[in-house]
Input
Amino acid sequence: MSDCLFCKIIAGEIPSRKVYEDDACLAFYDIDPQAPTHFLVIPKVHIPSVAAVDQENAGAVAHIFTVIAKLCRELGLDSYRVVSNIGEQAGQSVPHLHFHVLSGRDMTWPPG
Ligand code: AMP
Ligand code: ZN
Output
């Protein structure tokens, strides 16, 4: 999608601090980190949010979770939180599916 911030990051039109990339997904550090480690993992196809996941695109989501597990192992993270905000009230600010991976500090439950 041409006016999507994360599609522009995927296209290299906006720079990012890349953690990992393959044919199906990109992981990069959040520009406004909320924990000592905070990166985002996004599919290369434009999916607006978890609310738009269906049988056709679910493979991209499953793949992202294998990447999250692998990256966290490689980064030596043994405790972390994976978050996806859906819609304005939940705090979604970029309408391209993304999973936040946060680690390196104590976290509270329930989240705010
Ligand atoms: P959300 O608010 O859940 O939609 O998450 C969007 C995230 O994208 C926020 O945590 C932002 O800090 C992050 N973000 C926005 N612009 C950029 C950017 N150019 N590079 C990296 N992260 C970004
Ligand atoms: Zn997009």
Observations:
- The beta strands are 18-21, 25-29, 37-43, 80-83, 99-103.
- The chain has a mean pLDDT of 97.
- Residues 58-74 form the longest helix (17 residues).
- The two ends are 31 Å apart (CA to CA).
